[in-house]
Every structure is written in C-alpha cells, then in structure tokens.
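Support request, please re-run this one:
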Amino acid sequence: MKFIYFSAAFLMCFFITGCQETAYKSQEDSKRFSSGHEESGTPGQQNDSAAFRDTAVKVGKEELQQFLTIQPRIDSLIQESKVVMMKTLEKGNLDIERFNEVRMVAEDPSTNNDVSRADLENFKTVYKELEEIKRETDKNIAESLEQAGLTKERYEEISDALKTNPGLKELVQGEKG
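Re-run finished. Output below.
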C-alpha cells in the first residue's frame, strides 16, 4: 500500500487528485518561464491581447470570472476537509508526526521506530478514513467546478497561471478591487 506523507502544509494537496504532479509541473514551468515572457514571441515582449497568456495558458475574461467566482467555494471545501482530517487523526490518537512515523514503517518495515502491530492497525484504519474524506472532497470539488463551468484541470491551470503571470495577477487585483 502506498502512503502519502502528511504535513500541515501538505494536507491541502491530499484533497485534489493529481495535485502533486500539478505542483511539480508548476515548479518546472516557473523555472523555465521565470522571466515572465511569452513562450513564443520576442523575449521581453508582453502580450496585451484580450486573452491573457501564461507560458502557454490562455485565460479569457469569462473563464477568469468563473475561476474567481468558484475559488472561495473550493477554498472552503478544502479548509473544511482539513479540519475533518485533523479530527480524524486526533480520534485515532495520532498527530501528524506520529502518523508519518507509522507510515514509514508501513511502507518499509525495516525502519521499525517503536511501532507496534496495534499502531500499524490503527494507522491503516485512520488512513482508510482519510482516503474516504479525500474521495468525498474530490467529489464535492468536481461537482462545484462542473457547476461553475470549469474542469479540475482547467481550474488548476488558471490557478498556476495566477501564480506565475504578474499581468494576470494584476488583472485579478483590478477585478477584486
């Protein structure tokens, strides 16, 4: 069984399937395009067209508005799930540090760091509950995104674009302010 490493910051990523790959892709894109320039065109030239670009991601005004409308709902679903997950860990008499210690032994029994068979069984029970919370959260997020007219992939692309495209960030600030 493959286990996911938990930390306070990582819990959020546990909720959205594929976000580890998205985070990695985003980091790679940021390195390649850290200058903020378009992938095509003259270096240093900014694109001021009606469709905003980020390293190959076009974000139209309508999509941006859909994103801005649904983002608080998605954030709320994730926050609620984090709370439920933390309560699940507490109910299982585990904190994040102990959860990770037991996880390491579950993945590689040769690393037995004072982990009993009862600890492993408790871990498996808690892990199954966390997976169910994640499945339910993923379902709720997918439904919310569908109602907003966005796919999970497109939502993540726009989110990544907002992190890496200063022009798009400025536009969002203008829309909010």
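The chain is about 65% helix and 5% strand. The radius of gyration is 20 Å.
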